[in-house]
Amino acid sequence: MLLNARQQQELVKYLLSKEKQNGGSADNLCIRSGAYGLQTKMEGIFTEIHMGDLYFCLEQRLVRVDGQVVDLTAKEFDILALLITYPQRVYTYELIMELVWNEDAAFYSRKGVSNHMSNLRKKLKRTPDGLEYIKNVVGVGYKFEVP
Length: 147
Fold this sequence. Notes:
This protein has about 150 residues and is α+β, with helices and mostly antiparallel strands. About 35% of the residues lie in helices and about 25% in strands.
């Protein structure tokens, strides 16, 4: 799941609104949100997001933690792209299934989503004392949170 043009515009609008709320300049092509510790750059055709030691590039389907490339499956990357788009937003299991698998929740289980999340969380937490970006909201779903 790559973000289409409308979703990319929504992401940029959201980040710009956060920047304005924090007293920053909307004219800057580099968006920094103090509330989330988020930095997004629109350089040419790439959408890049930096959060602490995490680097995410949507178009290159590239994720790095502490400078090391993290090998993600297609679904893991799609889940991360969904969650990182709106930090702090809680996505239900059903919504994740619908948006990432494009299927009705009846055809896929919460356990499948949980397994993918578990693998993704392990891959993003490179060391025992590493940051945990994906939080479980018990009985509801998951959210991306800047530690």
